[in-house]
Amino acid sequence: MALAEPIPSGDEPSPVIADEEIILGYPSLWAHVIHSVRRETLPKVGMAIVLVTIFLAILGPVIAPYNTTAATNSVNQPPSMAHWFGTDNNGLDVFSRVLAAPRIDISTALLATALALIAGSAIGLFATFYGGRLGALAIRVTDTLQAFPALILAIIVVVLTGHGLATIVLVIAVLNMPLYARLMRSEVLRIRDRAFVEAARASGLSDMAIAWRQVLPNALAPIVAQMSVTIGWAILATAGLSFLGAGVPPPTPEWGSMISAGASEIILGQWWPSVFPGLAMALTVFGFAVLADTVQTALGREG
Amino acid sequence: MLFEVSGLSVEYSTLDEVSRAVNDVHLSADRGEVVGIVGESGCGKSTLALALLGLTRRNARITAGSVRLDGQPLVGGGLGEKQLRQIRGRRIGLITQNARSSLNPTLRIGEQIATVFATHTGERGARARAAAISTLRLVGINDPERRFDAYPHELSGGMAQRAVIAMAIVCRPDIVIADEATSRLDVTIQAQILDDLQRSVQEVGSSLVLITQDLGVIANYGDRLYVMNAGEVVETAPTPVLFETPGHPASVSLLESQLDLPERELRLRGLPVDGRVLPKGCWLQARCPFMDAQSGCRTVHPELSDVGTGHQVRCHRASVVLSRAAELTR
Amino acid sequence: MKRYILSRLAQVIPQVIVVAIVTFVLLRLLPANPVEGIVGPTATKATYDQEQQKLGLSASLLSQLGRFFDEIVHGGFGNSWQTNVPVTTEIGQHLPITLQLITMATVVALIVGIPLGYVLSTGRGPRRRQHRFLRIFSLFAGSQPDFWWGLVFIYLFFFLVRIFPAPLGILSPAAVAPQPVTGFILIDSLLRGQVGTFADALDHFALPVLTLAFVVVGPIMRMTSQGMRSEVNADYVLYARACGLPERRIALSIIRNGLAPVLTLTGVLFGVLLGGAVLVETVFSLNGLGVYTLQSVLALNYPSIEGSVVVMTTIALLVYIVMDILHALLDPRVRSR
């Protein structure tokens, strides 16, 4: 399972951006990212993978040649001209299911990440900005969440709530919230006492306006960098849960459950039901990892 | 001459641009002499300091020139890294301006000083420790036995600076290069540290190259001065001569800003020259109040020329500067 | 230094307590009904109430919590609802396998990852190709799903080329398990002089360890490289050169000073591996704590779940402390925080 990289504790200034403030915010950051993507091969590959995956998430089930959930008789057929990726133990065409699977995995991951990001950042922003003791307490609370073994907690919640996609999304979101809360907090602490915020305050802007207009744009960069990492983790978490039977229930095509279904056959040499979905997943998470790395490098170069 | 630098040049390269940080510098120091190098911030002093030991930061390189210590070439003599290592720290010492970050944060300072001693003299253990302690005492650290075990982050700025001084002189080098040894310190202790520095160096018998922005410092300690600007030596003279009759606009500018003379208009205008884009002719032409196109300031790059005994100036307008400055300092 | 250790240890206790409470409460707040799971949907009210009473679920939440902590103080989590065996005993049987698995994987990843990370940190030198490969590899490996790679390795190294044994547990059916001394099969088999069993167990551990090491080595490489790079350009390195210190000594201090972030990361990775072990244990049919926990969750076996979560969390927190201590040993600046 991929691992979210550890980030600094909430009370140190973020090491990601140097002193030169990106006051113009994201335009320059994105310019850098796009520049990297244009120039070097690796970011190009990463971006391509991500785009393909999103494309499949939207159109996958539509362009799939076979029905993805109706069981047939042609069970466990090796790859052939009729079935490029072979069939699984329910007679379903693996290729079609591989095309259809991103819809579940990616949308879950994107939704969960978006939730974690918004909720976590909001908590971090308000807790730190309006801060004081209550704020620090809120952060401590989100911190203890991190002490839990994440996957186990996810398994518990999903199984005990009845497997549902919504539950999975929520659990993943909640598990990742502390990270964003701390990132935001770290950034706010760093920016809060900078001159331009002082100036804004002196000119009579309300706290809210300051938070929104001044602090937020500058704090966004490392958060965006972290987003791609979380998406990758969320995909693995969804697939992992499904693999263990504690996630998306079959017959919905989903990478984890597909791999699980084919797992028992692999010892017998029937590799295609597990290998192809896994390959698709491996490439996808790699794509997101490359994207994350590109943004991080762009940030590094920015500073 | 103990220490001779000839035609030393250092280039920086950032991304695709090349910038000259030090350009064709000549200087020398004799036994027991204190030589000062002064210049405004950004004139290349720190780069020069490192280059005098044959070192550069990562994106810089020494492109020309030689540095000889007692006949042995530190730079430009084809000496191997191993031999250079034997000279550095042993026969030539360096004191940097960011003392605390120049010390290894995870080792005790006494240990670091003792290691330098042990590396060069082969004497380890108790003898190295004793040498370190006595040097710590020499540079003005009280209770050196206890301070031996301190970590850099436990020291005040002044103490850290003294520790670095100790590291530089523990092997009794022939010459010490002090690069802005007190600039980063509190004004109240700067004088104290300088005193300790100069005294220690004198006791150890080393020559001293004192690099600083502060003319006041050099007035007290320096025998001879070099004024630097835009990476070049623009004037050199014995200290009293420079203070009484400076011949270069940069020197006048320094004197004026530091000695609080009434006239403001003789200072160099604007910011230091960009080493990546140097104009034809004198590099200071855009900033210099004495600039005169008729004298060739815009077309011919001035060379160092004699204007008196031991007094050289790199300026087409030297005579004008001299007489003008003489009025000021009267 | 001692004060630092003690203060860190003291921080663990409230964290464990919080985790225990949250787990306990969470289990009882979520919709699942273990009583129904045991007596079946067609049971009479009497049977249902009786079972509920037996499981202690009829009492108020607070009194249940009280009983729970009472049990913990007496060194246990109650009995498993499935086997009626004390949970601590069962955990004691399953935990060693997971610990051996994770520890070996971490050690392997460190042994491979740190040197490679050091190579990676020496940046753009003459060896451009190798650096690019290492960089891409570290990015790739660190993002991968361990359960799938486990299957791939099984296919490659068991099915295609028979290097390693079938992924069916920790020992071959023919091997004789050693009489337990510590509960750790690798240690016990050596203590009992059963070298053959030791080798057999190691053989069975090989692929799962390889799988876990594979996904962990990436972050370790990247963090090592990052740590080294920030040291290599540090002022003290330049100054050490100015004092004529030999390169080897300078390299050693770079490595030592740059190691600190790697230590912290290793602790975090260990914790993540502990929580995520269930995946690899499932693939390789290893009877570790992860599998035990999963099975307890599926069976709604609350005491076992609580015990497992508390144990996992405590171990992870203790490991963080150990890493922090090592960090403080290496870097004196940490000690005075």
Number of strands of chain A: 0
Structural class of chain A: mainly alpha
Instruction: State the secondary-structure class of chain B.
Output: alpha/beta
Strand content of chain B: 15-25%
Describe this structure in words.
The complex is a heterotrimer of chains A (303), B (330) and C (337). Chain A has helices at 26-39, 41-63, 94-129, 132-145, 150-161, 165-192, 195-202, 207-243, 255-266, 272-302. Chain A has 303 residues and is mainly alpha-helical. By secondary structure, chain B is an alpha/beta fold. Chain B is 35% helix and 24% strand. Chain B has an eight-stranded mixed beta sheet, sandwiched between helices. Chain B has a four-stranded antiparallel beta sheet with strand order 2-1-4-5, covered by helices on one side. In chain B, helix 4 (109-121) packs across helix 5. The two termini of chain B are 34 Å apart. Chain C folds into two domains: 2-73, no CATH class; 90-336, MetI-like (MetI-like fold), CATH 1.10.3720. Chain C is 75% helix and 0% strand. Chain C has 15 helices and no strands. In chain C, helix 5 packs across helix 9 (195-232) and helix 6 (128-141) crosses helix 9. Chains A and C meet through helix 5, helix 8, helix 9 and helix 10 of A and helix 1, helix 6, helix 7, helix 9 and helix 12 of C.
Using brief descriptors, characterize the structure shown:
heterotrimer; A: 303 residues; mainly alpha; MetI-like fold; elongated; disordered N terminus; B: 330 residues; alpha/beta; Rossmann fold; eight-stranded mixed sheet; four-stranded antiparallel sheet; 12 strands; 24% strand; globular
Topology:
The complex is a heterotrimer of chains A (303), B (330) and C (337).
Chain A: H1 26-39, H2 41-63, H3 94-129, H4 132-145, H5 150-161, H6 165-192, H7 195-202, H8 207-243, H9 255-266, H10 272-302
Chain B: E1 3-14, E2 17-29, E3 34-38, H1 45-51, E4 60-69, E5 72-75, H2 81-87, E6 92-95, H3 99-102, H4 109-121, H5 125-138, H6 144-147, H7 157-169, E7 175-179, H8 187-204, E8 207-212, H9 215-221, E9 224-229, E10 232-238, H10 239-244, H11 249-259, E11 305-308, E12 311-313, H12 318-329
Parallel strand pairs in B: 3-8, 3-9, 6-7, 7-8
Antiparallel strand pairs in B: 1-2, 1-4, 4-5, 9-10, 10-12, 11-12
Chain C: H1 2-29, H2 34-39, H3 45-55, H4 61-73, H5 87-121, H6 128-141, H7 146-160, H8 185-191, H9 195-232, H10 235-242, H11 247-258, H12 260-283, H13 289-298, H14 302-330, H15 332-335
Helix pairs in contact in C: 1-14, 5-9, 5-12, 5-14, 6-9, 7-9, 7-12, 8-9, 9-11, 9-12, 12-13, 12-14, 13-14
